[in-house]
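To: structure desk
From: M.T.
Subject: fold request, one chain
Message: Could you run this one when you get a chance? Sequence is below, nothing fancy, just the single chain.
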Amino acid sequence: MNAPVGVFDSGVGGLTVAREIMRQLPEESMIYFGDTARVPYGTKSKETILRYSRQIVNFLLSKGVKAIVIACNTASALALAELQKDYIIPIIGMVQPGAVAAMHATKNKNIGIIGTNATIKSGQYGMYLRKLDPSVTVVTKACPLFVPLVEEGLIEDRITEDMVSRYLGEFRQYDIDSLILGCTHYPLLINPIQRFMGDQVTLVNPAFEVAKSLKQLLKEQEISADQDHIAKYEYYVSDMADQFLTFADRVLPCKVDRVQLVDIEQY
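Reply: Done. Structure tokens follow.
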């Protein structure tokens, strides 16, 4: 089934998920929506995030998508369960694939989670990890300044290294051996985070895991694209198309020529 997959995020961070889908499922077409007018979601209430997410799902359905990936940890934590109840289309989020991978990676059952304020406050990753193994120790930390640092392109910068050590310093006392990068921007900081945490800590990138889960889902539902299908990608945003293009050029393996603006409140 050669219909596209829908992917959405509060802004540009979900492009790290789009990148993994392109790599792992090169035959799948994709429609990406970034809610750049209303970013960040990390500071919004559950009700607001749910309303935004429903509007975006309605928009993606109007484009004929066959499955939807919530490429946003905050919306995954706060809206996924409701959306799965409300819509027939298969919808997957970031939390479950990331938690499962962290459980596979850990040897001492001490797992760290970093994310936005809303993701950490929701406790969704911790709840899911404890469902998998009640004896696990979960240590969490909100790292709100990582997102603007990534969007400013300050990946390998002194200020970023300072923020990494400030935020993650307390993890060292908990002997964690697995760290979930619970925000789609954070995989772009994988090098400074790994340097600070050391090689004994496995960094879990939910973007990588969610692309694997999507592949499995499409196969199970028998809606995978044909092997020889040539994928097409479309990009939509609710604001700031120019900034989106700049960021996409840094993240994606292919050139983005066109971004279309959508009045998302209509949906």
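Reply (cont.): Strands lie at 5-9, 30-34, 67-70, 91-92, 110-115, 137-142, 178-182, 202-204, 233-237, 260-261. Let me know if you need anything else for the meeting.
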